[in-house]
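Dear all,

This email documents one entry for the complex benchmark we are building for the journal club exercise. For each entry we list the sequence lines for every component of the assembly. Then comes the predicted three-dimensional structure of the complex as a token string, followed by one or two observations. Please use this as the template for your own entries, and keep the labels exactly as they appear.
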Amino acid sequence: MNVRPPTPEGLKPKDLIGVPWRLAFALQEAGWYLRDDCIWHKPNAQPESVKDRPTRAHEYVFLFSKSEKYYYDSSAVRGPNDRQLRTVWDINTEPSKHAHEAMFPTKLVETCLALTSRPGDVILDPFLGSGTARVTALKLRRRFVGVELNPEYAQEAEQRLNGAIIRDRSKASSSAGPKPPPNSASPPTSRPAGVSGSSCR
Ligand SMILES: C[S@@+](CC[C@H](N)C(=O)[O-])C[C@H]1O[C@@H](n2cnc3c(N)ncnc32)[C@H](O)[C@@H]1O
């Protein structure tokens, strides 16, 4: 069975398409500022059976802004020995019990959110998948809007978020000191800061 999709026009068979860079250039042309290309290096990358090129162990993380000036907190994430963060990030992929095959490691998402947003800011993830950005936004107290094409993944993200909210609440109540006496008025219940009521479907 031939599983290789047809070669895109203008390319030769076996040519690397370079989708990330093509997208980066298209966004630049559309007016975005391309500020940096970071390498997500995966030290635990899966072996490949290829014999005519190196095994792939990285992906790109592009930093775009909508204007020349933008929010960036270089103190939020530091490199080894408290040096300014470099553009190569060594982050292992994480084993997962979730169905989604392309889940991002939490550390990767946390790095991006911590550098470029503040508590209370709204994070938009137009490719939600299993919702890593959503649970990370909760952890960092950012609000969140997610969009996902596949209803099964959207449901998975919803379940993951619910689990994260329960853990977040029990953590908050265990660090809140002694429990009130049984008959005292309970505080109003609300979703924790950083979680929007938006649907991810
Ligand atoms: C690489 S995965 C995202 C993984 C996510 N960062 C995580 O950690 O789980 C990309 C997701 O985008 C979704 N997707 C693809 N095209 C889309 C579209 N046009 N609109 C919304 N979601 C889309 C796919 O179904 C897939 O779940």
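Observations: The chain is about 25% helix and 15% strand. Residues 100, 102-104, 126-127, 129-130, 132, 147-150, 153 surround S-adenosylmethionine (CB under 6 Å).
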